[in-house]
């Protein structure tokens, strides 16, 4: 009897534990359902800063042509050896600023000095022969006047003199050529700029037209843009552009300065050149992209990113006064021309809209979607 009583007690405890577990599980599920079915508490008010809104205003929107090209220096030179020889000295390295006429490098001038000396001595000898022939011709001229020599002898004397004159001129020209070769052994900067590269070292023997270094002038930069023949038809000198260099956030203003009169062989592209308004901090060879203004229209414009398209019709979120409060309203708009305000190249892409009042306060895209009727207020340092 004692063993039977103990067994029933164990069974009763197990049954009580199972019933308690089932009861707790049912209570947990009920709590979860109640939490899921409970309505979410939506915010009734949002705070805005002055950077969260923009005014819908009449602006001159310029429709543009997407362009891309390479920043290049107007003054760019490849310094090459004009004479062959051993590179004795290099006075400028990458990044060095030089002035026009500064010495960049020197080639061993020994050979060219000797050639110039030789040519100079030959010119001196030719001058001496010319002086002798001149005196002989003058003497024969007087003797011929007194009939002491024949006319033929006098003509021979004159021809000899003229030959020595020609020989002297040829010797002087040869000396000038030798002098120029000696001067070419010293390489000088053709304009003020910065050395951008060097391809030869001291001690190397270089040939004629061997590339030694590159020189650029960063004070005058332009952008070389290739266009298709159809795109280039409407491009004119003086048109404005807004460019972004190497994905920088700020844009740079530019103006069409020159248009190539012919297409490039092979690619058939037409090159246009844009002068940059502000070249500070830019470098030769950077990539630039942007918009070239082709036409201008005055429209009621808002940022293109502020127009939301998550519904059947595009709309913008505006802030309107309702009583003594400011509330969000959704305004359906029709979009028109797209472009940029060239007077403010830093601004984003604009779009002309209809269905909106001038001066309306439009929420920017980074604010996100807000429900209509939500109350808003501005931060203490922001102005509506």
Detailed description of the structure:
The structure is a single chain. The protein folds into four domains: 1-38; 45-62 and 297-378, conserved putative lor/sdh protein from methanococcus maripaludis s2 fold (Beta Barrel); 66-74 and 217-294, Elongation Factor Tu (Ef-tu), domain 3, CATH 2.40.30; 80-214, OB fold (Dihydrolipoamide Acetyltransferase, E2P), CATH 2.40.50. Helices cover 29% and strands 36% of the residues. The chain is built from four helices and 22 strands. It has a six-stranded mixed sheet, with no helix packed on it. The protein is elongated and about 170 Å long. Mean pLDDT is 85; it is low at 38-42.
Provide the number of structural domains: 4
- Number of β-strand runs: 22
**The first-level CATH class name of the largest domain:** Mainly Beta
Arrangement of strands in the largest sheet: 1-22-18-17-21-2
**Treating each run of at least 4 consecutive H or I residues as one helix, how many helices?**
4
CATH third-tier fold name of the largest domain: OB fold (Dihydrolipoamide Acetyltransferase, E2P)
Q: Classify the beta-strand content into a percent band.
A: 35-45%
How far apart are the termini? 90 Å
Short description:
This protein is of the alpha+beta class and 384 residues long. 29% of the residues lie in helices and 36% in strands. The radius of gyration is 44 Å and the shape is elongated.
């Amino acid at each position: 009897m004692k063993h039977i009583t103990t067994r029933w007690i164990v069974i009763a405890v197990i049954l009580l534990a199972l019933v308690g577990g089932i009861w707790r599980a049912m209570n947990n599920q009920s709590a979860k359902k109640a939490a899921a079915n409970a309505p979410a508490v939506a915010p009734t008010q949002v705070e805005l800063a002055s950077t969260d809104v923009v005014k819908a205003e009449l602006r001159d929107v310029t429709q543009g042509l997407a362009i891309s090209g390479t920043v290049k220096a107007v003054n760019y030179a490849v310094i090459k050896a004009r004479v062959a020889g051993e590179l004795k000295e290099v006075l400028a390295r990458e990044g060095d600023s030089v002035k026009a006429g500064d010495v960049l490098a020197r080639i061993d001038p020994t050979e060219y000095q000797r050639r110039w000396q030789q040519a100079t001595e030959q010119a001196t000898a030719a001058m001496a022969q010319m002086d002798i022939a001149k005196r002989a011709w003058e003497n024969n001229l007087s003797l011929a006047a007194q009939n002491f020599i024949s006319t033929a002898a006098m003509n021979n004397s004159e021809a000899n003199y003229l030959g020595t004159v020609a020989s002297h001129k040829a010797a002087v020209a040869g000396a000038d050529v030798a002098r120029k070769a000696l001067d070419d052994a010293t390489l000088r900067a053709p304009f003020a700029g910065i050395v951008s590269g060097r391809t030869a070292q001291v001690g190397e023997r270089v040939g004629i037209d061997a590339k030694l270094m590159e020189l650029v002038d960063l004070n005058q930069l332009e952008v070389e843009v290739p266009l298709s023949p159809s795109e280039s038809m409407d491009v004119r000198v003086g048109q404005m552009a807004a460019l972004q260099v190497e994905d920088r956030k700020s844009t740079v203003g530019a103006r069409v300065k020159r248009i190539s009169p012919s297409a490039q062989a092979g690619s058939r592209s037409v090159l246009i050149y844009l002068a940059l308004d502000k070249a500070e901090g830019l470098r030769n060879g950077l990539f630039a992209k942007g918009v070239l203004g082709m036409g201008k229209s005055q429209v009621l414009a808002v940022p293109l990113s502020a127009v939301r398209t998550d519904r059947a019709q595009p709309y913008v979120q505006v802030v309107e006064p309702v009583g003594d409060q400011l509330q969000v309203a959704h305004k359906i708009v029709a979009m028109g021309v797209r472009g940029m305000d060239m007077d403010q190249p830093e601004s984003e892409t604009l779009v002309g809209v209809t269905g909106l009042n001038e001066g309306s306060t439009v929420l920017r895209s980074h604010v996100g979607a807000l429900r209509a009727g939500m109350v808003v207020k501005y931060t203490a340092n922001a102005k509506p």
